């Protein structure tokens, strides 16, 4: 386990501003006041299983009720509600239709060009059912894995729901990943089908999807894929492989609008979502149907305080976990109306978010700190896109996710977007946790900018040292969760050993979930502040990436002998990627260095995806190494920041190299 060296400023630790939740909000909140919060926490403490069983019965519809709540016999492979039967799509769609919400708008689709289309619950159920029947007609069945490589669309959500309906396990791959990344995920998942679109529209540009699928499949090893289903988004020119490829409109044409849901047990894998770790290739985080859905629904009610009349908007992409929990499943499971957005925050201008909030009278808005920071900058440059120019009076609650939010960005968001009237929920969680873990409750928790405050009821977070002992408040340490919870990761697909070693390490006793983040609790309030990853995982614009992955991509280039990648703090993107590279040829300088750096950046985009492009590449004759040959990354982190090295370098074999690596090309 790596030491808890913090990569972030300890944001919020010196923060003394406190914002009480507004009285009118508290009055109508689902969890109203700290007494209500404390009562729920006490209930979980007193009878942990009873607490979760009650919630699972109240918030989900079961085809067959479960009799056992938590099965720890195979720990850390925990099972929740294991003998209960349910269907996720039934819970998201049918039950709303049956509850009198058939005509209620489920999705308001805001296209890149501003065109709006809507689907109510009845229509979404019909479209999902036809889609599901179409999948079945192509021989896709319960337990099969289906890759979804698609743009933001009603069809993307319907694709996920259709898989859930027939018990197929989906794995959504973000549309920005390369053919090679897509191929790796197809192979690891053993997918039988890929659902995609001809192209996606982002910021007025047509970006390819189907041709990347073709490329991925041509890279080999994907023989399991017998079906490629293509949603016609733009009508762009694409190749068609008759027999294998089918248009979505042809697939659903003539299918019945009714599809009996496949009742699956609660542990049935709902999805696999690949994410980066500190070592090796991306890991397929596997989530279970019952526990995941319970937490997606419950956090919509607790954290977002969702009410029947609310319009909810989460700006994430379905390619990330946020888009799973808070676009594809959570909002639908609670019968909400949500905005699904195809575009980018800066098109046609950087007022797009504010304009869209006004246009659809959004009440609850959930986005990433990196987006907020870039929109602050944009409003400085062009005052016409400042939020004050838009009618944002519909907003009643704001949220952030993905990375720490610096107090100044928090204040700007609170004052300028929320009009100093809307609580801000800074939600800490991870792909592996399935939903929020540590977050303010908008009608209860006094907020402190830069702190995610307190764990949700039933979430037993703690901060420990490297031996797993609790540390006192005010002392930093390793963030862990001491008890299993329903929406937790079940395993890493194809790699239970990596799951066990990575998340339940023996050093911590084998029963504590290791989040991979450092954290500290405030001495007085006990509030948590996340201090950053303690492993070699980077967070660039809220996108998670392993340094090893990027290094492997770099050394795969025939020019490269060796590479080391580190993160460095970045005002807009949180962290940015800085790569130190040794070429097989002599160290390039001047124009040569610039040209090769550009070539390598594009190479990484091709290998992994544009999000993994290093912001900077520096060349050296060697990398700083210990006498035993270990690369000293902590020194590289200092150099990347442009700071002088004051640390001990006595174990360094080649001190002269530092001079070479200290400047940009
Ligand atoms: C990592 C998880 C959660 C969905 C999107 C990202 C960082 C996430 C916060 C927050 C500080 C945060 C952590 C975490 N993170 N939210 N509110 N404050 N850090 O999911 O890609 O699995 O990344 O994002 O470092 O471990 P992910």
Structure description:
The protein is an alpha/beta fold and 665 residues long. The protein has a domain at 541-661: GMP Synthetase, Chain A, domain 3 (2-Layer Sandwich), CATH 3.30.300. The strands form nine sheets. The protein has a seven-stranded mixed β-sheet with strand order 5-4-17-16-18-19-20, with helices on both faces. Strands 7-6-8-11-12 form a five-stranded parallel β-sheet, sandwiched between helices. Strands 21-22-24-25 form a four-stranded antiparallel β-sheet, with no helix packed on it. Strand 9 (199-202) and strand 10 (205-208) form a beta hairpin. The protein starts with 22 loop residues before the first helix and ends with a helix. The structure holds 5'-O-[(S)-butoxy(hydroxy)phosphoryl]adenosine (WT7).
Kindly list the characteristics that best describe this protein:
32% helix, 665 residues, disordered N terminus, GMP Synthetase, Chain A, domain 3, globular, alpha/beta, 7-stranded mixed β-sheet, 5-stranded parallel β-sheet, binds 5'-O-[(S)-butoxy(hydroxy)phosphoryl]adenosine, single chain, 19 helices
Query: Which shape, going by the Cα principal axes?
Result: globular
Extract low-pLDDT stretches: 1-12
Helix content: 25-40%
What's the average pLDDT?
Answer: 95
The total count of strands amounts to 30
What order do the strands of the largest sheet run in, or round the barrel if closed? 5-4-17-16-18-19-20
The H-level CATH homologous superfamily of one domain, spelled out, is ANL, C-terminal domain
Beginning-to-end CA distance, first to last residue: 34 Å
In the CATH hierarchy, what is the architecture of one domain at level 2? 2-Layer Sandwich
User: What compounds sit in this structure?
Assistant: 5'-O-[(S)-butoxy(hydroxy)phosphoryl]adenosine
Main beta sheet, described? 7 strands, mixed
Tell me the fraction of residues in β-strands, as a range: 15-25%
At the first level of CATH, the class of one domain is Alpha Beta
Evaluate the radius of gyration: 24 Å
Q: Structural class, from secondary structure content?
A: alpha/beta
């Amino acid at each position: 386990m790596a030491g808890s060296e913090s990569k972030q400023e300890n944001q919020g630790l010196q923060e003394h501003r406190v914002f009480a939740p507004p009285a009118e909000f508290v009055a109508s909140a689902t969890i109203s006041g700290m007494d209500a919060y404390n009562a729920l926490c006490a209930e979980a403490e007193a009878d942990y299983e009873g607490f979760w069983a009650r919630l699972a019965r109240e918030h989900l519809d079961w085809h067959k009720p479960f009799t056992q709540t938590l099965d720890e016999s195979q720990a850390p492979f925990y099972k929740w509600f294991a003998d209960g039967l349910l269907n996720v799509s039934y819970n998201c769609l049918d039950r709303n239709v049956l509850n009198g919400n058939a005509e209620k708008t489920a999705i308001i689709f805001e296209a890149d060009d501003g065109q709006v289309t809507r689907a109510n619950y009845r229509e979404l159920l019909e479209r999902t059912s036809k889609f599901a029947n179409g999948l079945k007609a192509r021989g896709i069945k319960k337990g099969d894995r289906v890759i979804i490589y698609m743009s933001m669309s009603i069809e993307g959500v319907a694709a996920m729901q259709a898989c859930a309906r027939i018990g197929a396990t989906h794995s959504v791959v973000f549309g920005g990943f390369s053919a090679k990344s897509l191929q790796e995920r197809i192979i690891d998942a053993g997918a039988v089908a890929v659902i995609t679109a001809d192209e996606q529209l982002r910021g007025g540009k047509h970006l390819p999807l189907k041709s990347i699928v073709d490329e991925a499949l041509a890279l080999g090893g994907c023989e399991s894929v017998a079906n490629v289903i293509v949603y016609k988004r733009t009508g762009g020119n694409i190749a068609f492989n008759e027999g294998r490829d089918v248009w979505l409109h042809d697939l659903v044409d003539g299918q019945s609008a009714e599809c009996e849901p496949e009742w699956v047990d609660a542990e049935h894998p709902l999805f696999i979502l690949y994410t980066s770790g500190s070592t090796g290739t991306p890991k397929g985080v596997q989530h279970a149907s019952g526990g995941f859905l319970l937490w997606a629904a419950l956090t919509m009610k607790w954290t977002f305080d969702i009410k029947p009349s609310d319009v909810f908007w989460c700006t994430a992409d379905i390619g990330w976990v946020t888009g799973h929990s808070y676009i594809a499943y959570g909002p639908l499971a609670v019968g909400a109306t949500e905005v699904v957005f195809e575009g980018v925050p800066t098109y046609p201008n950087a007022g797009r978010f504010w304009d869209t909030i006004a246009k659809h009278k959004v009440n609850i808005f959930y986005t990433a700190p990196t987006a907020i920071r870039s929109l602050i900058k944009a409003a400085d440059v062009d005052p016409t896109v400042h939020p004050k120019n838009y009618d944002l009076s519909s907003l009643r609650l704001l949220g952030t996710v993905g990375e720490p939010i610096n107090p100044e960005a928090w204040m700007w968001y609170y004052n300028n977007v929320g009009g100093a009237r809307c609580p801000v929920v800074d939600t800490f969680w991870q792909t592996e946790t399935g939903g929020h873990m540590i977050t303010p409750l908008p009608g209860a928790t006094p907020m402190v900018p830069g702190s995610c405050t307190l764990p949700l009821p039933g979430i037993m977070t703690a901060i420990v040292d490297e031996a797993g002992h609790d540390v006192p408040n005010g002392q930093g340490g390793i963030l862990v969760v001491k008890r299993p919870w329903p929406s937790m990761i079940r395993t890493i697909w194809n790699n239970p050993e990596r799951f066990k070693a990575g998340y339940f390490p023996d050093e911590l006793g084998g029963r504590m979930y290791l989040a991979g983040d450092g954290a500290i609790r405030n001495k007085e309030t006990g509030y948590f502040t996340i201090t950053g990853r303690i492993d070699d995982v980077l967070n660039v614009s809220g996108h998670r990436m392993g340094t090893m992955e990027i290094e492997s991509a770099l050394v795969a280039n025939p020019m490269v002998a060796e590479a080391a990648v580190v993160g460095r703090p970045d005002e807009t993107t949180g962290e940015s990627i800085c790569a130190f590279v040794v070429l097989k040829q002599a160290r390039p300088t001047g124009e040569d260095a610039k040209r090769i750096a550009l070539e390598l950046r594009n190479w990484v985009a091709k290998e992994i995806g544009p999000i993994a492009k290093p912001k900077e590449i520096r060349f050296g004759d060697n990398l700083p190494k210990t006498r035993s040959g270990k690369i000293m990354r902590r020194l590289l982190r200092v150099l990347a920041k442009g700071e002088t090295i004051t640390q001990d370098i006595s174990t360094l074999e080649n001190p002269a190299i530092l001079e070479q690596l200290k400047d940009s090309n």
